[in-house]
Prior knowledge:
Number of helices of chain A: 5
Low-confidence stretches of chain B: none
Oligomer: heterodimer
Number of strands of chain B: 8
Strand order of the largest sheet of chain B: 2-3-6-5-4
Shape of chain B: globular
Amino acid sequence: xxxxxxxxxxxxxxxxxxxxxxxxxxxxxxxxxxxxxxxxxxxxxxxxxxxxxxxxxxxxxxxxxxxxxxxxxxxxxxxxxxxxxxxxxxxxxxxxxxxxxxxxxxxxxxxxxxxxxxxxxxxxxxxxxxxxxx
Amino acid sequence: xxxxxxxxxxxxxxxxxxxxxxxxxxxxxxxxxxxxxxxxxxxxxxxxxxxxxxxxxxxxxxxxxxxxxxxxxxxxxxxxxxxxxxxxxxxxxxxxxxxxxxxxxxxxxxxxxxxxxxxxxxxxxxxxxxxxxxxxxxxxxxxxxxxxxxxxxxxxxxxxxxxxxxxxxxxxxxxxxxxxxxxxxxxxxxxxxxxxxxxxxxxxxxxxxxxxxxxxxxxxxxxxxxxxxxxxxxxxxxxxxxxxxxxxxxxxxxxxxxxxxxxxxxxxxxxxxxxxxxxxxxxxxxxxxx
Lengths: 134, 290
């Protein structure tokens, strides 16, 4: 990722949409179990079009009641957690921390694009402003 | 991003099944308690991980929930009547969430399902499953479910470290024992702890005797009949004995069974049943027992 100026990424805060269930498996080893008799997935096996499971674990999102399940693996999982985090930490800083890279290497525009993609999919919604915040 | 169901681990799907059933139950105002698997406190969770969602439903409204789930795309996998000798659970299946077992009561605390549900509901707490708030039994309720579930599956209770750690805490164990009395689970609870003989002669005795020591499916059914307190209940069970589980047969075949296939299965089950009963009788005659 490259550095860039994209105020939206750092100023936007998101919440998981109502009716979307989530299972967050930060530790890859925890979720490496056979699936209906299938062999356990390879730790380095690409999941969902290229992301790997080496860093970031997996976030499963389930839009109820119909599905299907969305699987965010590796960096995608890291981005999702940064977007919906409630601690007030800057998403760019959090992504950099979780991926173990310098902040300047994280592209805020990429985070914003990913957020828009999740919003269009109905997985996240903009968080209502905190009335107690100045 | 959307994943095929078989790419999602079973315990993740089980968590989503809990959440999906809870959402449906909330929408129609049916009370449910999530039990076993991912719904229990960490200290009581088994290492194997859950493969489906077990949910105790307000017995007076379980039909409403089944209808709602059917409308939401869940298929009926097995019914209460054909599922087990206890007749306690129906299984539904969703293409994305997998299996959910809807319990109208829990074997072992089945004397008064409505009163038992009210008792467990009164002590409920809320757990987050799949990111959704889901009511679960109290800590004591969860231990009791664990004990009775181990009993039914012929797994050791006395040596289960999860049970042992609760027994090591006198206050916690006292709460479990108090709940046992309130839901009339004394016979099953004592059976699980190796004290079944204290209940010899009581109605439930043979049911748990067969369960703990093993027996044929026919013996299991007959013990269940003996445990039924009313003639109506006994007659109902006797009628159910030869029923073919057409739902499961259909799943085995991959399509709805034909009348001929159901009839064939009926005959085969009948033959098995007769054979089992004959074997039981022969054993008893040889032993000279009644």
